[in-house]
Amino acid sequence: MPVHKWAARRRRWLVALAVLAALLFLYAGRRQQQPQQQQQQQRPALAPDKEQPAAVRRRFRTLEQDPALSQWPADLSVDWQASSAQLAELDTIIQAARCGPRCQPASSADWRHRQQQVVRATQLAWAAYARDALGCDEYMPLSHRGRNFTHLGIGYLAADALDTLWLMGLRAEYAQARGFLAHQVTFDQRGAVSLFETTIRVLGGLLSAYHWSGESDTRLLVLADQLGTRLARSFNTSTGIPPETAILRSDGIPFAGDCSTSESATLQLEFRYLAKLTGNLEYRRQADRVIDVMLSAPKFAGLVPTRISATTGLFTGRDISLGSRGDSYYEYMLKQWLQTRRSEPDLRSEYDAAMAGVKKYLVATSPRQNLTYIGELLRVAGEYVQFSAKMDHLVCFLAGNLALGATNGSALADAPPLARRDLDDLALARELGETCAHMYFDTPSGLAPEIAYFRQDARESSDNQLLPDGDILVPPADRHYLLRPETVESFYLLWKITGEPKWREYGWRVFEAIDKWARVDNSGYASLDDVTQLPPPHRDSVEGFFVAETLKYLYLLFSDHDPVSLSDYVFNTEAHPLPVFSW
After folding, report:
1. pTM for this structure?
2. Taking CA atoms, which of 1, 16, 146, 549 is between 20 and 30 Å from 374?
C-alpha cells in the first residue's frame, strides 16, 4: 500500500477513535450526573462566596433515594419510637430539671475532689510523655520512647493536649507544649499525613488553644494557617472529595479514589473556623464543597455507606455503620448547623433525615437485658442486605449527639417544649447511654471492649458473653480498650442537658477503672489488651485522644462551673471546643 494512502487511512482511524472516545466519555458522565443535573436545573444559580462573603450559602439537598433501597425486605424496618413508659420517665426528668436543684436527689460526692483526681491523671500522663518523648507524634509508655509520623514530626500530641492543659489550669504544662509547637514545629517538610487526623487533632487543637488564649496568641493562629494551607491542597480533586492522606510539601493535583465517608465529612468545623479567623474564604469554599457533593448524592433513607468516590461524588461502600468510617459524618451534620448559629437549615434537615433512618433501620433491643443498641447494615446495594448486631465503642458518641440535637444544646431546665421527634431522640439517647454504660460495667475490669455484639435470640448461647445471662458478646479479637472517649463524652452531654446525677456517677466509675487498670508506674497510662482479664495486659501505646478527649470530658463532667457552654461552643470530633459564630 502506498505510504500516503496508509497515512490517510491511519488519520481517519484516529479521528474515528477520538470521536468514539468522546461520545463514550459524554455518555458515562451523563449517566453519573443526570440525577443531580435534573435536580440542579430546578434551583437558581448561586453567586460565588467571594462575591457574597457575608452571606450564608444556600445548599442543594437531594431527596433522591438510592435505587437499591426499593429492594430491601420490608421486615428490615423497625421504626423505633419511644415507648409510653420511656416517655413518662422522660417527662419526670424534664419536670425535675425545670423544678431546679431542690427536686434533684442529693449527692454526697465531693465533685471538686473527683475533678482534681482527673487533673492529677492528666499531669501524670503529660509528665511521662514530656520526659520521654516531648514533641513526638506518638508515645509508647512501656518502652519510654516516642515516634513520629513524618521524619520531623508535626506535634500531634502537643497540639492535641493544648486546650485540655489550659482548661485544667495546668499553665506550666501548657507553656511546655505551646513552646515546642511555637519554636520547633515546621509543616514545610516531606511526608504524608492523615488528612483527617491532622485536621481534627493538630489544626483543631491549634484553633481551640488560640481561642482560649483570648485570641491573643497569634503564633498559634499563624501555625494553624500554615498547616491549613498545606492540608487544603488535598481538596483539589475533580469533585472536591479529598484523599485520605495529605502531602505536606506538594503543589500537584492529588489523586483520590474511594475514600472514607466520615473522614471526608469531618474537616468542616475546623476549616470553616479557620476561614472565619483569617478572612480566607477559600478554606470555607473547599470544605463546604465536600458537603455540597454529599448532600446532593442519593442515600438510603438518610443513611450513607462508609465509602464515597472522589471521582463521581457518589457513595460506594457496601455497608452502613455509625462506627468506623461512618460515625462523624452524622456528628458534623448537626454540629456544622450549630456552628453558624443554626443558619444553614439544609444541614439540620440532612441530620434529621439521617436520625429518622437510624430509628427506622438500625435500632434494636437485646432479648435478656433489654439493652437498646445501634447495629449495622451489610451489603446495602443489593437484595441481600442484612442487619448486623455489631456496635463499635465509637457508636457511643451517638447518645450525646442525639441529646445535643434534641435541645440544640440547651439544658432541659431552659429548653422550650420538645416536639415528639426530639422527645424520641432524647429517649433514645438515654437508652443508648445505659447500653454504653453496660459495655463498661459488665466486664470484669469495668472497662469497655473496642467492639461488642448483641445477642439476638434469647435461646442462643455463646462463649463470648460478658455475663452468664447477659446479652453483650465480645470475641477475643475485640476485647482491647484504647482509652476511648465516646462513652464519657455522652455522659457529659447527657449530664449537661438532662441534669441527671447518674451520668456523673457513671463517669466516676469509668475513671476509677481507668486509674486502677490503665495506669503504668512512672509512665502515665497505657491502652489495654483484654478488658475481660484481671489484671488487663498493657499495650505499649497510648492514644492522643486520652488526654485530648477522655480526660477533658471527665474533667468537665465533674465541674460545677463548666466553662464550655453548649450554646456558645461546639466540640470538634477530637473534643476541641470551638466557638459558634456568624459569617
Report:
1. 0.90
2. 549
